[in-house]
UniProtKB/TrEMBL annotation:
Transiently phosphorylated on a His residue during the reaction cycle. Phosphorylation strongly increases the affinity for substrates and increases the rate of nicotinate D-ribonucleotide production. Dephosphorylation regenerates the low-affinity form of the enzyme, leading to product release. Its EC number is 6.3.4.21. It catalyses: 5-phospho-alpha-D-ribose 1-diphosphate + nicotinate + ATP + H2O = nicotinate beta-D-ribonucleotide + ADP + phosphate + diphosphate. Belongs to the NAPRTase family. This is Nicotinate phosphoribosyltransferase. It comes from Senegalimassilia faecalis.
Amino acid sequence: MRNEYELLTDLYQLTMAQGYWETGQGATQACFHAYFRDYPFRGGYAVACGFDQLAELIDDFAFTQDDADYLASLDAPGGGKLFRPEFLEYLRTFRLRVDIDAPAEGTIVFPHEPLVRVMGPIMDCQLIETALLNCVNFETLIATKAARVCLAAHGAPVAEFGLRRAQGAGGGMWASRAAVVGGCASTSNVLAGKRYGLPVSGTHAHSWVMSFPDELSAFRAYAQEFPHNCVLLVDTYNVEQGIENAITVGLEMRQRGQRLAGIRIDSGDLAWLAKMARRMLDAAGLTDCGIVLSNDLDEYTIQSILDEGAPVTSWGVGTKLACAFDQPTLGGVYKLSATRAPGQTEWTDRLKISESAAKLTVPGVLDVRRYYHDDGHIAGDMVFDMNAGVGEREVIVDPLDSLRQKNLSGKRFETLLSPLVRNGEVVLDQAHRSAMEAQRRCREGLASLDESQKRMLNPHTYPVGLEYGLCERRRALVGKLRGIA
Ligand SMILES: Nc1ncnc2c1ncn2[C@@H]1O[C@H](COP(=O)(O)OP(=O)(O)OP(=O)(O)O)[C@@H](O)[C@H]1O
Ligand SMILES: O=P(O)(O)OC[C@H]1O[C@H](OP(=O)(O)OP(=O)(O)O)[C@H](O)[C@@H]1O
Ligand SMILES: O=C(O)c1cccnc1
């Protein structure tokens, strides 16, 4: 079945499109940027994600006769039809003509810098706005949550278990992929594994144990069936008794030349129980049997359990990861920053002024330079206008407080945005769209952050600023628009 992404939008995008088409305004070239304003989860970074989905959206974007028939059926509130038949006829042959640039998935990103740049006829740019924000906002949020959870786990593998609690099937699919981009070693979501090439993993449920006359026979049956990846859930009735039964089965497996891979504890005081389990397993000689913990975990409970010295081999994290439990949205926006009349070469700055400094937009056709210290840690991000370039003094100015400035001259840098779509065609090859490749990039990106930016409590704020000349230009434009310059 087609995804029908062309209709996965707010109605006003389509009514504006008809207006643009009718007035001839639709041919005006526009530049939009998607960005977010606040660090998710009160953290110190975010993990860019959702661009594979965005590429799929662009690939599939076409209005069918069925779409046109549906739109033709919509009544205008005051009477008559909402859409003109000539416009719907135009949509039938419409092809997107946008250029889209974004950082590679898995790149570490920060508030107030462009996460996606879209350029093309203004009508085209707006027709994709809602669906673009839908996938980039959600996936960036979940990839960031996953990175936080995995950092808290200190390298022990985290399996994503959230599908059953995710926000619908679509949310579950994207959450599983984004969780792996953010660092999860695997997902329990089989369709996501198939569709996105993610490692899948799993243990067994309490129902397996409950369906047998007793726990020991349930464990024995499971070990017979899955001798190569046997993780036994020990908390169906009594954890201590469950561990003893697992030990019995583990020793039987050893006699057959097999290994009990682990036990899973899914309730109670997980730190206390994990320590008890380790003592019992070691005393029985099963020192190579791992301990998997699950049950309503997130980065905070994982940190607390590890702070208590719990000997944990791996983690299963579901609900609080797949639903971004403590912050359900990233709040990313999509703002017009420049326009160009048909046939012209020069871009005209566009600015939205708001009483709140945080909501003042940035004009121009923007990109980001990421500067590095000699030791490989990142030093600061500069938002600059691609057409104006960067002045000789590589100074960034905090967009919310112009007194805060930082000189980045002489440091090594890279530019973050790279081509994803050109003239409506996806140009990023499949290899660069892989979730596992994005996971590697995310790991490297997290290693380039200072520890102070990764801590959970009041992390250090990373310097992101406007290039000095761009900041001055914005200041002048604000004055002009307010009639004070
Ligand atoms: N040592 C620990 N430190 C911090 N948090 C913990 C620790 N052990 C367990 N937790 C967390 O405490 C919460 C306990 O939740 P809850 O009371 O629902 O668990 P439970 O008693 O096992 O019941 P249920 O069977 O319904 O899951 C979970 O979020 C779990 O992750
Ligand atoms: O706790 P999460 O992070 O969401 O991880 C997934 C949970 O899903 C399963 O429980 P189940 O759905 O059977 O419910 P339960 O809470 O009663 O264990 C599993 O045993 C985990 O506890
Ligand atoms: O495989 C598991 O252990 C699993 C999968 C989904 C949810 N809870 C646990």
